[in-house]
Automatic annotation (TrEMBL):
The lineage of its organism: Bacteria, Pseudomonadati, Pseudomonadota, Gammaproteobacteria, Alteromonadales. SUPFAM superfamilies: LuxS/MPP-like metallohydrolase (SSF63411). InterPro entries: Metalloenz_LuxS/M16, Peptidase_M16_C. Gene3D superfamilies: Metalloenzyme, LuxS/M16 peptidase-like (3.30.830.10). Residues 342-460 form the Peptidase M16 C-terminal domain. Pfam families: Peptidase_M16_C. Residues 260-292 are annotated as: Disordered. Residues 269-292 have a biased composition (Low complexity). This is Peptidase M16 C-terminal domain-containing protein.
Amino acid sequence: MLALMTLGCQHSPIHFTEAQAPNIPSFDVPENHTSASNTSTDLSQLLADTQQAQSKAIKPVAYQLPHTITLTKQFHAHQWLSSEVNDSGLNRLYLIGISAQQPITHPDILVEAFKQKLEEMANTTAYSPQMASCLSSIKIRASLHSVGMTIECSATDQQLQQQLWQFWEKGALSDINIATVIRNLKLNKHIGAFTGSEIDTTFRQQLLGQQHPYNLNVRNQSAINELDNTTLQTLHNKIRQQLQWHLFIPSPITSATHGVAQSSLNSTSDSQLNSPLNSQLNNLSSSTSTSSANKQNAVITSSDIFVPTWLATTQPNLTEVQPNIITNSTGSATKQSTQTILIINAKDTVQTQARVGFVLAKPDLVNTTNHNQNSTDCKTIAALLGRSYSGRLFYDLRETRGLTYGIYGRCVDAPLSQYLYFYGSTSLENSGAFLKGIIDHTQLLKDQAAKQTEINAVITYLMGKQQLASDHKYGKESRYINNLLLGRTASFEQLQHETLNSLTPKAITTMANHVFEGNPVIVLRGDADKIIPDLNEKLPHWQVITISP
């Protein structure tokens, strides 16, 4: 009886998946293809015509600039000159502070404190129904170079502006519950073990270096443990003085203003295109401020903007936003020279999370030509391999071999870092085959030229993605702010389009050899005891090391 019970408790042995050579999708028109219907339509000819149309140069998406007013050296207001009609009856404002020259200190702490303030305001302050709905619509988000807030309701622009600015007034965070803020921040760390942020943090530390500013200023447990009212207010004031402010207010709804905006933009000279974006915006602002649209009061003026007293009287030593250069002083990691797999040991987990990343070469310290070229290379390769359902990795590792629910690629193009990485999860028994599949595809792209039909599909994807972003105010705002942070001009946008339209198999091979020059930085999270033997079998020349998160 005891023997039977013992046998019943035993688990079946794990049978790990065999590795295979990479499979790549075909974008060629099938030969001798016949239509399944009885119509006279020649589907093969239709596909051929589509392929020929794709191979032609795609017209670049017009890069729109907003109408801009400079209130102070530190504060700019923007409005998209558009013919879109707002039928919702709601006004939407977007206030964002950016820091291009250095990362923001502990933005995660500040955002959690803002959320606590917002909750306490909703619970303790008496608001009219209209203003209460405004309060509930506020969304707060941050990155290592920006802190943004949106608000959308039926109140006036002036009322909305004041609601957003109250978070930045001196002493705004003096009365919040610090204990709750600390508890939520610590809870986020535990939640991150399941959502993927734990492996993302460890991966970024291994990729960029422990002392990189991006790794010192987010999820810093020492700063969280030492947090109190005094340190929080000091942090709040420091960030407030560090940021350059940009306020996006609702667009005018008359078609006349749209025409004025387009004519002003189209008349921009070549010399203006090569100047920093701030200069272009000032020129555009001057040209549109005297337009007939302005006379109709459809375009914002300085009288429409609320300027906080502390911002109006502060004159920090700020200069025009300039391109940032990645240097060794930022703590950036160099190319990975060893073949190493790092594992965060998560005992008894049934899946393995994977991150595979490549740091791009450090750009020239004199100009940003290489920096911008790195950006184009990084985004193109990320799309070719990891653009969700259409990428090579998804086609092979999910659709063909069933090793994962999803595998994706992303290019991080930030002021102080440029890197490409692939991410996804797989079951325990697929760990080795999944990881080897990713590595094999990066090598294959270096060794074997991609076909022009596949490259055309990548071009269409990248252009379409940009078109979708440009057609929506959220996308336009994000694109505009990102260019400000990276110090990029409108001429860069045009050059990037020209580069994409001229992509050839040889160019893709050159890009791949550049991006995948060194060995990847690999971090896994899973049950180390169970998957290490499989990794040693599938990747015998790689050293496997267990680390702590």
